[in-house]
């Protein structure tokens, strides 16, 4: 696991160097972000899609084309274009979407909450079901429960999520009608509650519009369950192996010898010790879901950041791609640092 | 197993020895014992069985498939499961789905094999060099790794394919590009622990160069954790390839790539569900097989049971 | 950890309860609301001076009035007076004077005046966005609009550089770019001298049946009816067009009554939806053509026999009756049916033997390999594969290059593709729109860079058709003009490197109670105001 390696080193560093560490961390975040931006920028420029053509369409006259070409600053050297872009980003300006003429920052503020809502519920399902499953599997290692847990997890790893999504829609929406269809809401529930957080469940709960809440829930439940299953697979496997490590440790044996109940041994001792590792795993799988599960979003017409970046990419809307990637990258890095910090704060060995 | 010959016996004894006579002997003995453990894991063997079957199917595709996978028949399209001459029905252009599935296994194996060659090797190189050299080299290489890790994976792959053009080879490269950073991380971590080991110091004192130490002493020790990781990643690779195919950025028509087949079939999902379902099941089966095998291998090769 | 486990189990219980409580959404849309599922991800702007895509035209047609416009209940009647009450044409045929109708109002309450008309047309020319060529082809430029487009009292006069057929000029004014905007409102929102372009991209300032409530890119467009509309307040007070990508999703929404109209059903879903309760299918012939083009730079493709042979290798009937079923009809001429000058002759059909002979006569070598570019869209990749299959029968290997629209288009415009498989929709409802691109190419050199002309993209010098097209566009006698187009098309069918294959039939699924739907035929876009349910 990426994070635990760096932790292993940091743990060796003396406490007094924390300040230095913090600066180093911030520095490396900055460098990573810069690299991320640069790579994305280059990809955008070498794409065989002509951004000018993407804007003006195929029937435009040459003079229209030339005007847009200059307007985008494409006549300037690549490095100059990059520096301009960097300067804007530093001021929080991601530029305008080339295709829908809106500020990219505004677009992201609109699509990101949708992804966040989905990912949060997904990872929540993953935790609620995955952690107990992992613990039970570890405690009953080798038993049928362990085998079932294993199969459940491996099946989760192996499922093409776009296919499962299609099948889920077909069965639960098309045939049975138990859940809402693609999209976040039925059409006539739209625009009823004001967008405060952009997360419809939260917004409707805040506004007390429970009919909207229920409708939104019926729409999110299927895609969130799919993502939940996926993170359940990961979380339960990791929980199991962390727990196994603890359960074979000496202190557990000691605790058992002392006559503590099995329940107490498992939850009060072993589980307590894997908390921190578990947080890292959860942060990682949350980060993965936040990156936008492109395919899930596409199947469920979910207007999230994953499908936003993908659509933008395929239509050469580079400002949108850059903006989206920066935001996603930043979140990924931040979550990593956060779990890093938690490690340092909670891990007994680092004190 | 009942009539083991004495010859086999002696081989077995040689492999099971507690006192190996040479390094090769020790390694083979280790491998054999690992194999015995793996053989005891019925789920892993099940996975291995499926993969062997896949290999055979791909190998003998022309013999096994009842029809040519590309022959169209517009008057005979969207035939249901079990229709005459078409066990798994036909697709939108009247092509036999079973035959396409069989030929598609070749593409799947091709992708898997290529990615499995490219990504871990690249990761191993970067990781061991960074871990062994330390200092600035380490910092720079690891920052690059971080950059690629911070990218949304499918987006990076998409961007890459979009930049180079759709096609299997480019899809393979794109997936490798997103897959190498974790390997680099693992290899670096292993290198760090090995680097400071006493015996490496001893070898260094004997005058061995960095290149020799990395290739002869560090790489072999990284291999087993990499193999586990690769096997476990295979499923992810297949799914990623299928995802690219699904988005139309993988194999090009009329190639029977499974992801592309789902994509073609999804518009009939309501009335002709099998067109998308059958290749979906195929992808699922193969990636499950890889996961089962990987899980078993992990038990064998990584006694910590996969805390990676 | 006890509190944590307790929290977890109660949370799990909460989830379980909520799942069972989720309603099984069987619904009906409100009576005064029209809900439509459509792919609207092509909308990039709603400024009528800039908007040029299908979904954008649909929105624009219901927001903006034009000088002359089509009556959705009588499309065959051609353009009718709208903002212009009447018009007169000068004797030399270069000047048209429109008299503006009294009493029309913009949504803002401002009256519609000749000054607004002058402003809107001048603005469209000056902004010089993509569709500007529809107006600038009459010789208008940013520099001369002061003299060529002039308001005076309640009349507006436009002066063209040549005596074009009046029908040609007026047909062009019915297209989206002819939409009249509210000068005062637009200029109040001007930024950096952009004539309100930035603002109009996402807002509306029209006088039509509807006004824009909001447009969420790739999500939805919401329109609110204009109670003061000059033909009377529309019955549907709110129209919501929601972006739904998948045909299957649209069908499910329709069958469940969550939407009133589904506009992107594929043939299989149409067949399925037809049997569903409360759903009917509406067929309407549209203007879009599906065609193949053969690049004349290729030494083999430039042989006349080869061009002929390639047209005999298309399984027109087979495709029409299988995967295109009901949504495309065989049509082998560049003018869509219902256009002035359209003809109905389709002489080509699949004939592998004949093609083989022609290829042999032309001396085409064994194992010829060609590359075809096609956009990532199901029916097009299927056409490509069916064609690939047919070419294989005469020993030609066709490599298919699938890409996004923008990718393939870039290659096509750079004259890099051997074969292009694509669609073409008319820009404005006049025969010149297609004649001027399929059969018109005054300079075939690479330097000309006439990327807008299909003939140029395929390096075809048109063999004399260019002059005939130029002649037809200034012919003011309607019957004569029609004959000229008939002749051009007869020659085009035979000699051109284009195989026009199909014309689009739009099949919209709708609830039984929805009435008076007109999607715009081959000439214009959808009209919401007559719709009832």
TrEMBL record, chain A:
Q: Which GO molecular function annotations are given, in alphabetical order?
A: dipeptide transmembrane transporter activity
Subcellular localization, as worded in the UniProt entry: Cell membrane
Per the UniProt record, which residue ranges are transmembrane?
Answer: 21-43, 118-139, 151-176, 216-235, 278-300, 320-343
| Topology in the lipid bilayer | Multi-pass membrane protein
Is Lipid metabolism tagged as a keyword? no
> Taking every annotated instance into account, which residue ranges of this chain make up the domain ABC transmembrane type-1?
112-343
Keyword Membrane applies: yes
Q: Which keywords label this protein?
A: Cell membrane, Membrane, Transmembrane, Transmembrane helix, Transport
Q: Where is the signal peptide?
A: none
Q: Name one GO cellular component term.
A: plasma membrane
Which SUPFAM superfamilies did the record assign? Answer: MetI-like
Q: Which Pfam families match?
A: BPD_transp_1 (PF00528), BPD_transp_1_N (PF19300)
| Family stated for the protein in its record | Belongs to the binding-protein-dependent transport system permease family.
What PANTHER family would the database entry show? Answer: D,D-DIPEPTIDE TRANSPORT SYSTEM PERMEASE PROTEIN DDPB-RELATED, DIPEPTIDE TRANSPORT SYSTEM PERMEASE PROTEIN DPPB-RELATED
Task: Please state what the protein is called.
Answer: ABC transporter permease
Q: Which organism is it from?
A: Aliiroseovarius halocynthiae
Automatic annotation (TrEMBL), chain B:
Q: Report which superkingdom the organism of origin falls in.
A: Bacteria
An example Gene Ontology molecular-function term: dipeptide transmembrane transporter activity
Q: Which residues cross the membrane?
A: 43-64, 107-134, 154-180, 226-252, 272-294
Matching entries from PROSITE patterns are given as: ABC_TM1
In this chain the ABC transmembrane type-1 domain maps to 105-294
The protein's matches in CDD domains, at most eight in alphabetical order, are given as: TM_PBP2
Metal-binding keyword on record:
no
Q: Which GO terms describe its biological process?
A: protein transport
User: What keywords tag this UniProt record?
Assistant: Cell membrane, Membrane, Peptide transport, Protein transport, Transmembrane, Transmembrane helix, Transport
| Alphabetized PANTHER family for the sequence | D,D-DIPEPTIDE TRANSPORT SYSTEM PERMEASE PROTEIN DDPC-RELATED (PTHR43386:SF1), OLIGOPEPTIDE TRANSPORT SYSTEM PERMEASE PROTEIN APPC (PTHR43386)
Which family does the entry's similarity section mention? Answer: Belongs to the binding-protein-dependent transport system permease family. OppBC subfamily.
What is this protein's name?
ABC transporter permease
* Organism name: Aliiroseovarius halocynthiae
TrEMBL record, chain C:
Q: Tell me which positions the record assigns to the signal sequence.
A: 1-27
Top-rank lineage group of the source organism: Bacteria
User: What lineage is on file?
Assistant: Bacteria, Pseudomonadati, Pseudomonadota, Alphaproteobacteria, Rhodobacterales
State a GO cellular component annotated for this protein.
ATP-binding cassette (ABC) transporter complex
Q: Which UniProt keywords apply?
A: Signal
* Domain Solute-binding protein family intervals: 79-444
Coiled-coil region list: none
Q: What is its main location?
A: periplasm
Can you say where in the cell this protein is located?
Answer: Periplasm
The record's listing under PANTHER family reads: ABC TRANSPORTER, PERIPLASMIC OLIGO-PEPTIDE BINDING PROTEIN, PUTATIVE-RELATED, PERIPLASMIC BINDING COMPONENT OF ABC TRANSPORTER
Read off the CDD domains from this record.
PBP2_NikA_DppA_OppA_like_7 (cd08512)
| Family statement | Belongs to the bacterial solute-binding protein 5 family.
Any GO BP annotation: peptide transport
Q: Name one GO molecular function term.
A: peptide transmembrane transporter activity
Q: Which species expresses this protein natively?
A: Aliiroseovarius halocynthiae
Question: What's the protein name?
Answer: ABC transporter substrate-binding protein
């Amino acid at each position: 696991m990426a994070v635990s390696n760096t932790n292993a080193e940091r743990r060796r560093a003396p406490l007094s160097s924390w300040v230095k560490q913090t600066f180093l961390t911030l520095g490396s975040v900055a460098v990573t972000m810069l690299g991320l931006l640069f790579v994305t920028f280059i990809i955008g420029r070498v794409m065989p899609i002509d951004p000018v053509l993407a804007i003006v369409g195929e029937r435009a006259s040459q003079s229209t084309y030339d005007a847009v070409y200059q307007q985008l600053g494409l006549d300037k050297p690549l490095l100059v274009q990059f520096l301009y872009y960097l300067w804007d980003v530093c001021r929080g300006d991601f530029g305008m979407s080339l295709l829908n003429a809106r500020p990219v920052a505004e677009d992201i503020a609109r699509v990101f909450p949708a992804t966040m809502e989905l990912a949060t519920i997904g990872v929540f399902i993953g935790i609620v079901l995955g952690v107990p499953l992992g613990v039970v599997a570890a405690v009953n290692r080798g038993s049928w429960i362990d085998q079932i847990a294993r199969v459940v997890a491996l099946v989760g790893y192996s499922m093409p999520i776009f296919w499962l999504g299609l099948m889920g829609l077909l069965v639960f929406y098309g045939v049975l009608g138990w859940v809402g269809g693609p999209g976040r809401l039925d059409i006539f529930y739209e625009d009823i509650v004001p967008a405060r957080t952009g997360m419809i469940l939260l917004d409707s709960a805040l506004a007390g519009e429970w009919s909207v809440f229920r409708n939104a829930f019926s729409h999110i439940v299927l895609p969130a369950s799919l993502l939940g299953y996926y993170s359940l697979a990961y979380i339960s496997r990791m929980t199991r192996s962390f727990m196994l490590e603890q359960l074979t440790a000496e202190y557990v044996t000691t605790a058992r010898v002392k006559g503590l109940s099995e329940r107490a041994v498992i939850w009060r001792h072993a589980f307590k010790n894997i908390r921190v590792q578990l947080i890292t795993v959860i942060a990682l799988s949350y980060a993965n879901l936040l990156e936008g599960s492109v395919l899930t979003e596409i199947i469920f017409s979910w207007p999230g950041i994953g499908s936003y970046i993908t659509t933008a990419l395929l239509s050469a809307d580079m400002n949108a791609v850059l903006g989206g990637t920066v935001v996603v990258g930043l979140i990924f890095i931040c979550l990593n640092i956060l779990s890093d910090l938690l490690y340092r704060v909670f891990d007994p060995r680092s004190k | 197993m009942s009539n083991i010959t004495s010859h086999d016996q002696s081989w077995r004894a040689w492999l099971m020895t507690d006192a190996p006579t040479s390094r090769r002997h020790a390694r083979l003995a280790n491998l054999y014992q690992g194999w015995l453990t793996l053989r005891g894991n019925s789920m892993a063997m099940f996975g291995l069985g499926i993969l062997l079957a896949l290999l055979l199917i791909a190998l003998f595709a022309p013999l096994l498939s009842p029809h040519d996978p590309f022959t169209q028949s517009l008057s005979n399209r969207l035939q249901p499961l079990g229709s005459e001459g078409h066990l798994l029905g036909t697709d939108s252009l009247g092509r036999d789905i079973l035959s396409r599935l069989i030929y598609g296994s070749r593409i799947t194996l091709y992708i898997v094999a290529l990615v499995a060659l490219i990504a871990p090797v690249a990761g191993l190189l970067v990781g061991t060099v960074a871990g062994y050299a330390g200092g600035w080299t380490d910092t720079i290489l690891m920052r690059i790794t971080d950059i690629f890790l911070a990218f949304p994976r499918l987006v990076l792959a998409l961007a890459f394919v979009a930049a180079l053009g759709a096609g299997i080879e480019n899809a393979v490269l794109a997936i490798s590009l997103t897959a190498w950073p974790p390997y680099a991380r693992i290899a670096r971590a292993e290198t760090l622990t090995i680097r400071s080991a006493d015996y490496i110091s001893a070898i260094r004192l004997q005058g061995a160069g960095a290149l020799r130490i990395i290739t002869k002493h560090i790489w072999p020790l990284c291999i087993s954790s990499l193999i586990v990781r690769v096997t476990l990643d295979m499923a992810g690779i297949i799914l990623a390839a299928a995802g690219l195919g699904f988005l139309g950025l993988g194999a090009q028509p009329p190639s029977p790539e499974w992801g592309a087949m789902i994509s073609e079939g999804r518009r009939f999902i309501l009335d002709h569900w099998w067109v998308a379902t059958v290749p979906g099941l195929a992808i699922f089966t193969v990636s499950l097989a890889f996961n089962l095998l990987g899980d078993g291998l992990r038990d064998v090769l990584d006694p910590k049971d996969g805390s990676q | 950890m006890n509190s944590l486990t307790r929290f977890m189990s109660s949370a799990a219980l909460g989830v379980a309860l909520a799942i069972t409580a989720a309603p099984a959404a069987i619904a009906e849309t409100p009576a005064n609301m029209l809900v439509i599922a459509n792919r609207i991800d092509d909308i990039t702007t709603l400024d009528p001076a800039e908007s040029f895509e299908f979904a954008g035209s649909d929105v624009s047609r219901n927001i903006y009035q034009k000088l002359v416009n089509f009556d959705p209940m009588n499309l065959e009647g051609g353009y009718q007076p709208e903002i212009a009450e009447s018009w007169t044409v000068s004797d030399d045929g270069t000047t048209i004077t429109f008299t503006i109708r009294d009493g029309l109002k913009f949504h803002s309450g401002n009256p519609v005046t000749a000054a607004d008309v002058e402003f809107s047309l001048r603005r469209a020319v000056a902004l010089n966005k993509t569709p500007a060529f529809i107006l600038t082809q009459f010789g208008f430029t940013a520099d001369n609009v002061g003299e060529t487009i002039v308001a005076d009292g309640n009349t507006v006069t436009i002066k063209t550089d040549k005596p074009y057929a009046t029908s040609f000029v007026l047909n062009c004014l019915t297209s989206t770019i002819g939409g009249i905007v509210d000068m005062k409102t637009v200029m109040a929102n001007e930024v950096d001298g952009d004539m309100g372009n930035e603002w109009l991209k996402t807002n509306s300032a029209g006088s039509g049946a509807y006004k824009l409530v909001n447009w969420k890119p790739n999500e939805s467009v919401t329109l609110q009816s204009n109670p003061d509309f000059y033909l009377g307040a529309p019955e549907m007070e709110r129209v919501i067009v929601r972006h739904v990508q998948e045909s299957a999703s649209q069908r499910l929404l329709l069958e469940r009554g969550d939407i009133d109209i589904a506009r992107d059903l594929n043939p299989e879903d149409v067949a399925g939806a037809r049997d569903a309760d409360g759903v009917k299918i509406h067929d309407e012939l549209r203007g879009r053509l599906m065609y193949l083009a053969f690049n004349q730079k290729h030494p083999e493709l430039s042989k006349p026999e080869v061009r002929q042979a390639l047209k005999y290798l298309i399984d027109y009937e087979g495709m029409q009756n299988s995967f295109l079923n009901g949504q495309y009809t065989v049509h082998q001429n560049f003018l869509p049916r219902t256009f002035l000058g359209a003809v109905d002759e389709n002489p080509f059909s699949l004939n592998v033997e004949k093609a083989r002979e022609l290829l042999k006569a032309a001396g085409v070598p064994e194992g010829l390999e060609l590359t075809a570019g096609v956009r990532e869209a199901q029916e097009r990749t299927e056409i490509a594969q069916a064609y690939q299959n047919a070419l294989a029968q005469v020993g030609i290997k066709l490599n298919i290059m699938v890409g996004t629209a923008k990718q393939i288009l870039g290659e096509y415009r750079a004259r890099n593709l051997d074969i292009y498989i694509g669609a073409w929709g008319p820009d404005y409802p006049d025969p010149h729109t297609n004649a001027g691109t399929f059969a018109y190419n005054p300079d075939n050199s690479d330097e000309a860079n006439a990327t807008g002309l299909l003939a140029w993209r395929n390096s075809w010098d048109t063999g004399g058709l260019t002059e005939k097209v130029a002649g037809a566009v200034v012919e003011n006698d309607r019957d004569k003009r029609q004959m000229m187009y008939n002749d051009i098309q007869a020659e085009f069918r035979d000699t051109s490197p284009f195989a026009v294959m199909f014309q689009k039939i739009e099949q919209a699924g709708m609830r039984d109670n929805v009435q008076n739907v007109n999607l715009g035929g081959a000439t214009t876009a959808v009209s919401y105001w007559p719709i009832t349910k």
